[in-house]
Write a structure and sequence with these properties.
globular, Arc Repressor Mutant, subunit A, two-stranded antiparallel sheet, 434 Repressor (Amino-terminal Domain), about 250 residues, single chain, 3 domains
Length: about 250
């Protein structure tokens, strides 16, 4: 994430925590709401406008930069043992995922069958592993970096991959907000490498949009998953017909 993206993301988080909307910013800056949305989406803030938005939240630009500096020291990944702890307790995992997605304590217990005492116990465990800081009145301060990721092929990824096979892919992908594409053909090694590069860029854009949308209310955000994969592959029925001397290594 670039410095500009990080600043705008932090600005959005502060707006949400202050209970302010784009309409409030529109009134303060004397601009249309559509213009405000464009400023945020294009990340085109002058220092004057940035200062005006900060003043709306009773903040200085220096406060914003201090928060940004603090976020840079937050964790980018859990340990193997910590991820194993999360997958060993489904309620703890639910609370952890909700916290990472900027849910409040009340939002968690009102939407899931998790009792208040159970939720507090889960948050205390997350505080212990430094995923969050549990503050007074059960406020949740997230202690992860914007570049946070799960361990590659670790307990969390393995857990969700199992769910992908049995649940996520069990869909026609024809409803609103859904799509499934399948492409097959013959590519050179260079073309394969280019597609992989673009897939990684798409995943980075997904994470960036996730971070930016943390400032929106829970009613405006939806749990969204994306699976994109590529590998040299041939249907097993086709491969079974290949002559042994024609087998190739990518």
């Amino acid at each position: 994430m670039s410095e500009t993206q990080a600043i705008i993301s932090t600005l959005k988080k502060n707006l949400r925590s202050s209970g302010l909307t784009y309409a409030d910013v529109s009134a303060a800056l004397n601009l249309s709401e559509s213009s405000i949305k464009r400023l945020f989406s294009e990340q085109d803030f002058s220092l004057k406008r940035l200062d005006q938005v900060c003043q709306l939240m009773n903040l200085e630009i220096s406060d914003l930069m201090a928060q940004l500096a603090e976020e840079k020291h937050n964790i980018t990944q859990l340990t193997l043992e910590q991820e194993q702890l999360l997958v060993s307790d489904v309620k703890l995992l639910v609370v952890a995922i909700c916290a990472i997605n900027s849910w409040t304590f009340n939002e968690i217990i009102s939407r899931y069958r998790i009792e208040k005492t159970e939720a507090i116990q889960c948050l205390a465990k997350l505080d212990k592993i430094k995923l969050i800081e549990l503050q007074p009145k059960n406020r949740i301060k997230l202690l992860i970096s914007p570049s946070f990721s799960w361990i590659n092929n670790g307990p969390i990824q393995t857990y969700f991959e199992g769910q992908v096979q049995s649940d996520f892919l069990n869909s026609t992908f024809t409803a609103k907000g859904e799509i499934r594409l399948f492409a097959t053909g013959m590519l050179s090694r260079d073309a394969n490498a280019l597609i992989i590069k673009r897939i990684k860029r798409l995943a980075q854009e997904f994470r960036q949009l996730h971070n930016e949308d943390q400032s929106l209310s829970l009613d405006e955000r939806f749990g969204t998953s994306m699976v994109v994969a590529i590998r040299p592959w041939e249907l097993s029925t086709f491969e079974s017909l290949r002559r042994k001397e024609d087998s190739r290594i990518f």
